[in-house]
Specification:
This protein is an all-alpha fold. The chain has 9 helices and no strands. The structure holds fe (ii) ion.
Length: about 160
Amino acid sequence: MSVADRVPGVSEYGSVDPAPPSKVTDVELLRKTLIDENEKMFQRMRSVFSLRNKRSDDAVQALCDGFGSGSALLRHEIAYVLGQMQNPSAVTKLIKVLRDEKEHVMVRHEAAEALGAIGDRRAVDTLKEFMSDSQPEISESCEVALDLLALCITDENVDW
Ligand SMILES: [Fe+2]
C-alpha cells in the first residue's frame, strides 16, 4: 500500500500537491495536455503529476517538453517533480534550465535542487559554477544540491 492510498491528498511521493494526478495514463495524451497553452492550468498540472507517477523515461521526456511552456509556474512544478522522480534521463535538460540566465529564478532554483536529488555527478560542474551566482535563490540551491549529492555518493571520496 502506497502513501497515496493511506493518506488522502498525499501523493505516492509523500508530497501534498496543488492538483490531483490526472486519471489519464497515456503518456502522449498527458504530454498533449501539458503543452497545450489553451488548456486550464489545473488540468496541465494534473498531467504533470500523472506523468510523475508513471516514473518512466518517456514520461520524463514528456515533462521535459513542458519546459517550452510560457508559464513559469508550470515550469517550476515540472522541475520539482523531476527531482522527485530522481530519473537520470532528466539531467541534461535540468542542467540546461539551470544554465539559462533568461529563465525565471524560481525555475532555476528548482532545477538546481532537482539535480541534487537525482544525484548524478554530471551535474557537479554546473552546480559548482552557479554556487557563485549573484542571485541567492540560485547560489544557495546549488550549495544545497551539492551537499545532497555528496551525501548520496558514498562509493568514492568526494572533495568539493
Ligand atoms: Fe522550490
